[in-house]
Fold this protein.
Amino acid sequence: MQPGRRALLALVLALPLAAPAAAEERVLLERKSEYNTIQVTEEDGLRVMRFVPGTVRQSVVKVGDPDHLEAPYARAIPVALVFARKPRNMLIVGLGGGTIPTFLHRRLPELAIEVVELDPVVVEVAKSHFGLREDGKLRVHVGDGRRFIEQTARRYDLILLDAFGSAEVPHALVTREFLRSVRRALAPQGVAIGNVWGPDDNRLYESMLRTYRAVFDAVYVVDIEDAVNRLVIALPWTPALPREEVMRRARALTVTLPLREDLGPIVEHGFRLPGADGATGRVLTDAEPPR
């Protein structure tokens, strides 16, 4: 074979092995509100909401796949249903792109879900770019989540605290006074779920856990693999559930909802009592600002 033809053949054989160029992240929207600079980007079919460009992702959807949950912590949230067997209503503080309420609404169509979001522009962007749709079972309130909980006369079977600023949970949503209001807003057998960052990324983690433990009768932690998030499951009652029963219920939920990811391994490797978590913290209060 002539040298020129050998070189051409080598080039042709090498082409399939070359890695495809990475898709470029496109900015679809950047809009300022009273509270945030909301940015929406898209790359490789994933649409992302950020409250400050270049910071943490507040919400992610996979375009064309409404059942996709990109965030590992979001995939773990149904673990809380182990304790709330037949929830009738749910309150979520913090909307983002609306990924979690939309997912739960599809999986539990009889569950009445209310969401409270401080920033009206976030609500608008969730509807225009992330597929959020309100109906008789899914409603969004624009307002202060803490004030809503303090003033509500309803009692909820589930309350999810999922409100973040650009860098952390607002102090007003982690204090003893606020968590007491959450407890009052829960049904007697209700369940509160808090999405928090772990100790490596959250200087107040120990204090947050101590505050939850000071307010609720039972507190569990769900460690999330490959994520900075941890879920705190807090109950105003003490369940009598051995770990084997928690595991059984979690695996059953995977089938009945149904879910793409088995809850069994999440419970097996991540669900636990808080142990020493919170032992070195302090109870957070309204009177004492974070330090």
Summary: Residues 1-22 have pLDDT under 50 and may be disordered.
